[in-house]
Design brief:
This protein has 19 helices and 28 strands. The protein has about 625 residues and is of the alpha/beta class. Strands 4, 5, 6, 7, 8, 20, 25, 26 and 27 form a nine-stranded mixed sheet that branches. A hairpin with a 2-residue loop joins strand 26 and strand 27. Helix 7 runs parallel beside helix 8 and helix 10 packs parallel to helix 16. The chain starts with a strand and ends with a strand.
Length: about 625
């Protein structure tokens, strides 16, 4: 069971133990759909107005009257009225009210009492807060405690420390090593990492305490990463060498200590494209099974999660290793994958996962639910990198925009593009549209097709659209998960969950963190490929189970009050927006959404009418 680090503002003890609030308010009334039950602290009972307890004989009658008075007059902190409650279990939605007191859901059904805050959810869906299994917010949380844009897409709990990449444990003086590795793998500027985090820890437990002190807006939990563990034990030998038996034992013990201090599990990457700044694969890429299995035993003893990114070039061997890990842990193993670009790829993957599980192992895959890759435009990366294009890349956005008004300079850009190849084929570069992003990637919307239709060179098309939109035109270089139906076959399969939004990583190149909004609009509402109940389950209780969150992911009385109120008919994604708000002025993409009437985290409203409220209500999970 995961216990959150205590947040005194939510009535929780710093060690995570719930502390009853002292209050003069009447006790909580819990009203269930089938019956009414009143739970009362008898020390609070007082006679209703104009009623006096005149004798012992009248006491029983007075007590009943008091019960009735409390039921009629008690005021909840928040009541969400008349919404379509999709509870996260996969059950059919119902029309109901939801009451919240402090940080818990206290009633679901017909709630006669009023709320200090009332939310009219008529015509809206009410869901548990969404859970994002794959983020790299480990650095961003240092300077952006609101963890944007996750709350704006209904996410109330996020898992950090994926892909073997974490900032703890770390020996004093080795901070730059981990920061530079994170920059090389996840495209987060090392200068921002070093300057944006306090670096006042060595152990993983100390790291969690430091993160707690940052007071995040939503809940976060962390995996301890293989790269940091290897560096801590092996030093420079972590990259190229295999450990001794003694070093394996030390790594297993270090992972054990990290889980004992609160890590939710262990992560590792074997992906060959995850490289150090000097081009070598990150520590752990070529770790032998005996090392990983020894670590898995430490994880198993503590009921933790193992997250892995397999080497896609020898996938059968990697799947066998995942099976071995699951056999040792007898617990949850989560791995990331991409979907090949042929129509049957999804069915093939589903069959592989079924065989991998063999009816015994708790192994789950996760992938992104649409085609993605690299965003490019005048605001960030240019599709040509030669001659005048290099000069354009070196100046500010404002100066780039002004340069495009110079006919002579535009002619030089076109001439250089005609005499060289773009970084990516124009047939793989898709215009995202004007006001809302079009992620359907229709052939007629790729850069080459638009150019052909207008009898112009693709570079001319890029420059023209950039000028017409004041430099805001964006293009997606589609690199993976390009066969939509095959991807959706995986996402709707029995043992795969949507995720891989990579929030916090590759921030100047991608923006996939809005995947929850995409799932509700594209797979549920517009295509009907997934039912509303099942779509919500795959974003709530299913990932919450993998994280070990027993009191989140469902709308149930007694559960933590992580709740969304969503206008599904109005729900939409905004166009990705490029901002220079990282430490040192580095740029990154973010993305808004429309349709989120309210998002509660631990009973506090963190989003109202699509906007952040500046409330920081999150807790840091400890296993």
């Amino acid at each position: 069971m995961v216990v959150p680090v205590g947040n005194p503002r939510l009535g929780e003890h710093p060690a995570g133990r719930e502390v009853k609030r002292k209050s003069k308010a009447p006790p909580v009334t819990t009203i269930e759909p089938t019956r009414t039950r009143i739970t009362t602290n008898f020390n609070c009972i007082s006679a209703p107005p104009n009623r006096k307890l005149q004798s012992r004989e009248q006491g029983s009658t007075a007590l009943v009257a008091t019960y009735n008075y409390l039921e009629e007059n008690y005021m909840h902190d928040i009541v969400i009225r008349g919404g379509t409650v999709v509870d996260g279990s996969g059950a059919e939605p119902i029309i109901a009210d939801v009451a919240v007191d402090a940080n818990r859901i206290t009633a679901i059904g017909s709630v006669p009492q009023t709320g200090r805050t009332e939310i009219d959810a008529g015509g809206h869906i009410v869901t548990p807060g969404f859970v994002d299994l794959h983020t790299h917010l480990d650095a961003q949380i240092g300077w952006d405690p609101f963890l944007t844009p996750l709350p704006q897409h209904g996410v109330t709990s996020a898992l950090m420390g994926n892909c073997g990449m974490t900032f703890a444990p770390v020996r004093k003086g080795h901070y730059a090593l981990l920061a530079e590795m994170m920059e090389a793998v996840e495209d987060i500027p090392a200068a921002a990492i070093i300057g944006g985090l306090p670096w006042n820890w060595e152990s993983f437990g100390e790291y969690l305490t430091s993160i707690e002190n940052l007071r995040p807006a939503i809940n976060v939990g962390g995996l301890v990463g293989h790269c940091a563990v290897r560096f801590y034990v092996m030093g420079e030998g972590a990259v190229d060498e295999q450990p001794s038996d003694k070093q394996i034992a030390e790594m297993a013990e270090l992972v054990a200590q990290s889980l004992d201090a609160g890590a939710l599990g262990f992560s590792t990457s074997r992906l060959l494209s995850h490289l150090m700044p000097d081009g070598r694969p990150v520590p752990g890429t070529f770790a032998q099974p005996r090392e990983l299995l020894a670590i898995a035993e430490a994880v198993a003893e503590r009921g933790g999660l193992i997250q892995a990114v397999p080497n896609l070039e020898c996938i059968q061997d990697e799947l066998d290793l995942l099976r071995q890990l699951a056999a040792v842990t007898h617990d949850r193993v989560l791995f990331s994958l991409t979907v090949d670009d042929h129509r049957d790829a999804g069915h093939e993957i589903n069959s592989q996962i079924k065989n991998l599980r063999n009816g015994v192992h708790d192994i789950t895959a996760t992938t992104y639910l649409r085609g993605s890759g690299v965003l490019c435009g005048l605001v960030n990366t240019l599709p040509w990198q030669t001659g005048a294009w290099l000069k354009l890349a070196q100046i500010s956005f404002e100066d780039r925009l002004a340069s495009l008004e110079d006919h002579t300079f535009r002619a030089r850009l076109l001439e250089d593009a005609q005499s060289s190849e773009p970084v990516f084929s124009p047939e793989k570069i898709f215009w995202l549209g004007e006001s809302q992003p079009d992620y359907n990637y229709r052939p007629e919307n790729n850069l080459q097709s638009i150019a052909t239709a207008n009898d112009e060179h693709p570079a001319t098309t890029f420059l023209r659209l950039s000028r017409e939109t004041s430099g805001r035109a964006l293009f997606m270089v589609r690199l993976f998960n390009s066969q939509r139906d095959a991807v959706w076959d995986v996402i709707t399969g029995e043992h795969a969950l949507p995720s891989l939004g990579d929030a916090g990583a590759h921030a100047g190149l991608i923006m996939d963190a809005g995947w929850c909004t995409y799932l509700l609009t594209e797979l549920v509402r517009d295509s009907g490929r997934m039912s509303l109940a099942e779509g919500v389950r795959r974003m709530t209780s299913a990932p919450a189970r993998l994280m070990g969150l027993s009191e989140r992911g469902l709308l149930r009385t007694g559960q933590h009050a992580d709740v969304n109120v969503i206008d599904l008919g109005r729900l939409s994604l905004g166009m990705p927006e490029y901002r220079h708000d990282f430490p040192g002025g580095a740029g990154r993409f973010t993305q808004s959404a429309a349709g989120y009437k309210a998002t509660l985290c631990n009973g506090q409203m963190v989003v109202r009418d699509d906007e952040l409220t500046n409330t920081r209500a999150g807790v840091v999970f400890r296993r």
